[in-house]
Structure formats: structure tokens, C-alpha cells
Write a structure and sequence with these properties.
With 746 residues, the protein is of the alpha/beta class. Among the domains are: 56 residues, N-terminal domain of TfIIb, CATH 2.20.25.90; 229 residues, Dimethylsulfoxide Reductase, domain 2 (3-Layer(aba) Sandwich); 127 residues, Beta Barrel (Barwin-like endoglucanases), CATH 2.40.40.20. Helix content is 30%, strand content 16%. Helix 3 runs parallel beside helix 17 and helix 8 runs parallel beside helix 13. It is globular. The termini are far apart. Bound molecules: iron/sulfur cluster.
Length: 746
């Protein structure tokens, strides 16, 4: 059989690059960037071609695994036996101890997988527990809370208009390694270069001179966790020098005077010493931001996962509003995704609110936020005796044993669970403790659609990817796994007609929408709509529904020029639906229908920022980092991605190395209130003096895992150093950047 060429979206990170995959019926021959892809235009990173290695990885599970009780090891079983074992081991625990004894942990890959994304919600309802944990509280929840309070929904995140802006400030973000986050844009570095080439300016603010910083017009070191201080001082300059100009937002914004009052107390000279940035530079940056024809401030992980994460996320958007750059081309805009999103559907006068504090963790009383409990609390909820102790856990594509604070304690706690079920492709540091592992499918055997990421993209684009290889007919699809688990946890057993269950879900969705006068299919015949989508099933049908009822959809014939999934499939390189556009006030879903520039919940936290000014900021602190060749904890089993120079090293500035007797290539003991690790030192002046950096997601030296490649270069687990007591009070987000540490040669 001669090779064929398939065009597919890379499912591995937020950049959603187009892949050109040459394959026979059974194997991949070559993977390269799809030059005709409307969005990525041929760009890929080294991870893109790893889809082939992940597909053939002998460690990737192909069949369900059941762990013998009493330490007897693993047994490969049939799918019916696996589901029966889930029911047999899990349900008695829940009958005995109730749903408060059950917790879930959902990992980052869920956002990239339409089966888990859509059908995970169904499972979540059946699990019926309040103990929801996810990677979101070691990541972006701070930004989601600030944007929800300012604009009305948790994904109303303004996206910097990279392709048209004249001036960009990037904080705590290194797209040279991450490829962009909460910012979907293939080849971010190329887009940054283009800003400079067209006469604009890119300013990077980061405690490390990253590869992104090296490409920028200007770089400023900043002491970790002082981003909110800097941004507040910039707001001060804007007000003090009469540079505030909201432009078309003036009639749509509440709270400007409140922000003026707050910022008045934050002149640059007050924060310069703490941030490590001259007052004159702070003043100049604010002036340049205001003077640029168009500009945007963008901040990411380093600003999200620290002590003042929500304040920093809020102030980024405050600056964009105050300079009139929010919601204008070249500034920061709200995407309108092809599949619809909460800020582009329904009655705009029916506002959405986020909630918090409806329940709390048992041990330390940490409040839920948006239904999430802090991941940093999970270990103590399992190993602390008493009523309501977590005794059962379901993990979906997540590895909390490496990914969250207190991970050493969690590794000790997981074996004490009465039952644990994992949906995962590997026996890793977490799933090795599961009773049953239900493996997902290879990326190449399932369809892909970047539903979440289109809501964060710098252009309106869309693309459908069919599987490269036909799915194995002898195993359930991932969405079917979710539906069978839903049935088990709902007490209905393992015998499920997944097709009928899927029909029922879709029918319920249609019934709701035809009754909604704001829906494009309001008043239509539900049966007619249902038939129009058949014979597609599973996530493919959900995507068709979302596109057709979305902002560009055909509304099932009402808009004949609109899009359907069938039409999208005729464009293997994707479709470009145009640049981002102004959407205020239509996009707003706040109670007032206005931008809330000074939400009470966030403003109340300024007092804590004020208190921090009295603190001694001179100690050594640790920040994380990412490497272009890896992705959190789960791509370390691909040989050519971890080959070469050691990636898991502790970056130390030469002055600090001399001060603490650390030598390049030597071993260094790093200790914090959370624990200690011994890492290999890499002395480099790319670090700000007083700051060291260790990447996260490593620590593959646990016995009992089946990650044969990762185990050859295990690295150390940086989350051992993350103090579980240190969580951001507004969101419960882990403070994994700015961890106080001490260094000693080991
Ligand atoms: S940048 Fe992300 S989406 Fe693009 S090839 Fe690399 S891993 Fe895939």
C-alpha cells in the first residue's frame, strides 16, 4: 500500500499547529509542519513529530490493567472485566462512606481532548462529589477568576492581538518554550519578531532572561511574585500623568475612580526596590504603553501561580482598559470561537456569576472556587483521619503525584486509598496506585477539534482532524469509557448501550436549545435537528451541533452560508474566519452588563499587597520553567525529546553560585518549607541574582512505574519544594513561583 498524507492538528499543546503526516495503513513514515495550514503555515516545534513516537511507545497501555490487591502486581484484562472491577471495588466504598469520601483529579490533557472534555461533564455529574481537584489550581485559575469578575465568564480572557499590535509587554511567560498559553498562536516567536520588524516594540518582564527575552526589544528582570506591585505602579503613572484614555470603553466601564483611588498609593518609587526595576523604567514603560498607537499587556504562568496571582491577572487587564487597548484591534481582544462559548450565546441580560466558598475542605477549611478545591490540599484530605476522609479517587489524564504541591506526601497517601480508578495511557507515578487503569486511545486513532483553544486564539480559525488510523474496533472509544463510568457511578451498572446514552444526551441538549429564545434554533422541531446530525455519534456530533448553533453556523438551514462540520471537513488545512474584532458590550456577561474594573473580591486583596511592602524581599526564591521539548510530566517517555543536555537542572546566577559554594554541573541541595531535593546545578547569568529555577514535571525515579525511557533521566520533582500551606487566598492556586529556598552544595 503506497503511503498517504493526512493533515491534522497537533493535539499536544495550545498552539494547535497543523501537521502533515505521511503514513501507510499501519505506520507513520514522516511528520512535518503543514505549510498550507491556515493558522500555523508550516510551523511546528520538536514535540509535534512526537505524535508518532507516542503512538508506538511500547509503554503506552493498549489494554485495561487491574492491580492485584495485596501487592500482586498488574494483570491485563478485557474491557468488560475492567469495568466490572471498577464497579466491584468502587461501589462498596461509596456505599459505606458516601460521596464525600470520593475525589476526582482532572489533568491538563483534558482541555485538548473532545471526548474527555464533552463526556467528562457527564461523568462529573454521576460522580456526584464536591471534592473536585484539577491541574487548574496549579495553573490558571487566578486569571479565570479575575476575568470572570471583570467580564462575566471564566474564559473571557482578552487575547493580545500579536499580529497587529505595536507594543507588547510580556510578563512571566516564555512562549519560546511553552508556545503560548492562554494564547493560542502557532509560532509566537515569529509573531513577536514581526512586531519588531514592523517598527513596534516587545518588552519582556521575567526573573529569567529566557529565549523569548533574548528576542525581545527589551528585558527587565523582576523579583518573583512582585508583578502586581509593578503593574500597580504603572497604573499609578497613568493616572498621575493624565494618560488614562478608555476610548470606546468609557461608556461600558465601572470602577475607574476606585482604581484611581487605589493606584494613588503606589508611586513607582515605592515598589522599585522590591521589584528590582528602576522607578524611571516603570514610569517609562507606563508612558510607552499609553503612547503606543496600539498596545497590549499579556501575562502568564509566572504571574498566575504566585502569591498575588489574582491581583496580577486583574491588573494586566486594568492596564489594557486604562490605555484604551482592551477590545480594539492591535490591543487585547475577546475571540468569538467557531464552536460558541458562554460569552457568545444566550441572553446577554442574563448574567453569569462565578461562585466561591459554597463548601470547604475538611482539614484546613480552604474554600471551593468555581467548584474546584485547591490541589495543594489533596494529600492531607486523604491521609488525615476522621469523618469525611477521602478514601476513593478517580483521576482522568492527570499525574498529581508529580504535578501538585505536597507531592511526596501524596505519593505516600495514594496507596492508602480504598479504591482508585484512573483513565490514563501510562502506569506513571500516580496511576501505579490505581486499582484499575482504563487506557485512552492513541492520539492518532481519534479525531481532534480544538474546541477550548479556539476561545483563546489570536485569529478566528477552525479545523477538524479525522483519525490517522482507524480506531481499534475491539475497544471502547474514550467517550464511551466516560459513559460506562458514568453509568457505574450512577449505580446503573456496566451494561450500557453507549449509542443510546449518547442519543439521550444530544436529545436533551436539543430540547434545551429549541426552548431558548436566544438560540438560533429557537422553536425548531427537535426531531428534525436530531435527524440532521445523524449518523455522526460521540464528540463528532457534539462538534457539529456546536458549530451549527455557533456564531458562524448554518443554524440548521436558517443561515445557508453558515458552517457545518461537514463543510469544515472539506477544508483539510482549516479555515480562517478572520481577525479578532471589537465585541464590547455584546461580549460582557457581568451582572451590571459593564466591565467591572474594580471587583470587590479582588480589590479587597490589595491590603495584602500593601502589607507585603514591609517584608524582607532579599532571600533566595525558586521559580519554575518549561522546556520546549517537554510538556508538564507526560512527554518524558519519548527518547529523542529528553536526549542531549540535562533538562532538569537548577539554574543559578554566578554570584549566587559563588555565595553558596555551588559549582556548575555539581549537585546542590535545595530546601524549602515544603521539603528538599538534590538537583544538578547549571550556573548561568540568565537568572536574576537571588532567584533560581527548576522545571516541573520531573521525578521519574519512583519504583512501580512503567516509563522505561523517562526512568533513564528521571530528574527531580520540583513540587516537593512547593509548600502546601502556601496557596493564593482568593483562588486556592498553588504558589509554585517565588518559593523561598536555601542552597547548599550536596
Ligand atoms: S507548538 Fe504545540 S501544537 Fe505546535 S507542534 Fe509543538 S506541541 Fe504541537
Amino acid at each position: 500500500m503506497s503511503p498517504r498524507t493526512e493533515f491534522r492538528t497537533c493535539p499536544l499543546c495550545e498552539a494547535i499547529c497543523g501537521l502533515e503526516i505521511t503514513a501507510t495503513d499501519t505506520e507513520v513514515i514522516r511528520v512535518r509542519g503543514d505549510r498550507a495550514d491556515v493558522f500555523s503555515k508550516g510551523f511546528i516545534c520538536p514535540k509535534g513529530s512526537a505524535v508518532a513516537a507516542l503512538h508506538t511507545d511500547p509503554d503506552r497501555l493498549r489494554a485495561p490493567m487491574v492491580r492485584h490487591r495485596n501487592g500482586g502486581g498488574w494483570r491485563e484484562v478485557s474491557w468488560p472485566e475492567a469495568f466490572a472491577t471498577v464497579e466491584e471495588r468502587m461501589m462498596p466504598v461509596l456505599e459505606r462512606h458516601g460521596r464525600e469520601a470520593l475525589a476526582t483529579y482532572v489533568g491538563n490533557p483534558n482541555a485538548h481532548n473532545i471526548s474527555l472534555l464533552y463526556y467528562g461533564r457527564q461523568l462529573g455529574r454521576s460522580l456526584a462529589t464536591r471534592n473536585g481537584y484539577s491541574a487548574g489550581t496549579v495553573d490558571q485559575i487566578t486569571k479565570q477568576v479575575s476575568t470572570a469578575l471583570m467580564f462575566g465568564t471564566t474564559l473571557s480572557i482578552p487575547i493580545p492581538d500579536l499580529d497587529r499590535t505595536d507594543y507588547l509587554i510580556l510578563m512571566g511567560a516564555n512562549p519560546a518554550a511553552s508556545n503560548g498559553s492562554l494564547l493560542t498562536a502557532p509560532d509566537v516567536l515569529g509573531r513577536l519578531d514581526a512586531i519588531v520588524q514592523r517598527g513596534g516594540k516587545v518588552v519582556v518582564v521575567d526573573p529569567r532572561r529566557t529565549r523569548t527575552a533574548e528576542r525581545a526589544s527589551e528585558h527587565h528582570f523582576i523579583r518573583p511574585a512582585t508583578d502586581a506591585h509593578l503593574l500597580m505602579a504603572m497604573a499609578h503613572v497613568l493616572f498621575a500623568e493624565d494618560l488614562v484614555d478608555l476610548g470606546h470603553l468609557a461608556d461600558h466601564t465601572n470602577g475607574v475612580e476606585e482604581v484611581r483611588r487605589i493606584a494613588a498609593a503606589w508611586p513607582p518609587g515605592r515598589v522599585a526596590g522590591i521589584c528590582g526595576i528602576d522607578a524611571a523604567d516603570i514610569q517609562r514603560l507606563a508612558r510607552e504603553l499609553a503612547a503606543a498607537p496600539t498596545a497590549a499587556v499579556y501575562a502568564r504562568i509566572g504571574t498566575c501561580t504566585q502569591e498575588f496571582g489574582t491581583l496580577a491577572g486583574w491588573l494586566v487587564d486594568v492596564l489594557n482598559v486604562l490605555t484604551g487597548n482592551l477590545d480594539r484591534p492591535g490591543g487585547a481582544l475577546f475571540p468569538r470561537a467557531v464552536c460558541g462559548q458562554p460569552n457568545s450565546k444566550g441572553n446577554p441580560d442574563m448574567p453569569r456569576t462565578i461562585e466561591w466558598g459554597r463548601w470547604r475542605t475538611r482539614v484546613r477549611g480552604a474554600p471551593e472556587v468555581m467548584g474546584q478545591l485547591p490541589a495543594a490540599c489533596l494529600a492531607e484530605e486523604i491521609d488525615t483521619p476522621g469523618d469525611g476522609r477521602i478514601r476513593a479517587l478517580v483521576t482522568i489524564a492527570g499525574n498529581p503525584a508529580l504535578a501538585i504541591p505536597d507531592s511526596e506526601r501524596l505519593q505516600a497517601a495514594l496507596p492508602t486509598l480504598d479504591c482508585m480508578i484512573s483513565v490514563d495511557n501510562y502506569i506513571n507515578e500516580t496511576t501505579q496506585h490505581a486499582d484499575v487503569i482504563l487506557p485512552g486511545e492513541s492520539h492518532l486513532c481519534q479525531p481532534h477539534f480544538s474546541a477550548t483553544l479556539y476561545q483563546l486564539a489570536v485569529r478566528h480559525v477552525a479545523k477538524w482532524s479525522d483519525p490517522v488510523f482507524p480506531p481499534d474496533p475491539d475497544r471502547p472509544r474514550e467517550w464511551e469509557i466516560m459513559l460506562v463510568l458514568s453509568s457505574v457511578f450512577a449505580g446503573r451498572g456496566t451494561e450500557v448501550d453507549t449509542g443510546a446514552a449518547d442519543d439521550a444526551i444530544v436529545s436533551a441538549r436539543i430540547a434545551k436549545e429549541v426552548a431558548d429564545e436566544w438560540s438560533p434554533v429557537y422553536g425548531r422541531d427537535p426531531d428534525e435537528l436530531f435527524e440532521a446530525m445523524v449518523p455522526a455519534v460521540g464528540p463528532e456530533r457534539v462538534v457539529d451541533w456546536q458549530i451549527r448553533t455557533g456564531p458562524y453556523g448554518d443554524a440548521f438551514g436558517a443561515n445557508p452560508d453558515g458552517w457545518t462540520l461537514a463543510r469544515l471537513k472539506q477544508h483539510p488545512h482549516g479555515v480562517d474566519l478572520g481577525p479578532l474584532e471589537s465585541r464590547v458590550p455584546e461580549v460582557l456577561r457581568t451582572l451590571s452588563g459593564q466591565i467591572e474594573l474594580a471587583p470587590d473580591y479582588v480589590v479587597a486583596d490589595v491590603a495584602r499587597l500593601e502589607d507585603s511592602l514591609e517584608r524582607d524581599w532579599t532571600g533566595m526564591v525558586l521559580v519554575g520553567r518549561r522546556n520546549l521539548r517537554t510538556n508538564n510530566s507526560w512527554m518524558h517517555n519519548v527518547g529523542n525529546l529528553i536526549a542531549g543536555r540535562e533538562q532538569c537542572s537548577l539554574l543559578v546566577h554566578p554570584d549566587d553560585a559563588q555565595r553558596f559554594g555551588v559549582v556548575d554541573g555539581g549537585q546542590v541541595r535545595v530546601a524549602s518549607a515544603g521539603g528538599e531535593v538534590v538537583a544538578i546545578a547549571e550556573v548561568s547569568d540568565e537568572m536574576m541574582p537571588g532567584t533560581v529555577s527548576l522545571p516541573h514535571g520531573w521525578g521519574h525515579d519512583q519504583p512501580g512505574t512503567r516509563l522505561s525511557v523517562a526512568a533513564t533521566r528521571p530528574g527531580v520533582n520540583s513540587n516537593i519544594l512547593a509548600d502546601p500551606a502556601a496557596i493564593e487566598p482568593l483562588t486556592g492556586n498553588a504558589m509554585v513561583n517565588g518559593i523561598p529556598v536555601t542552597l547548599t552544595p550536596a
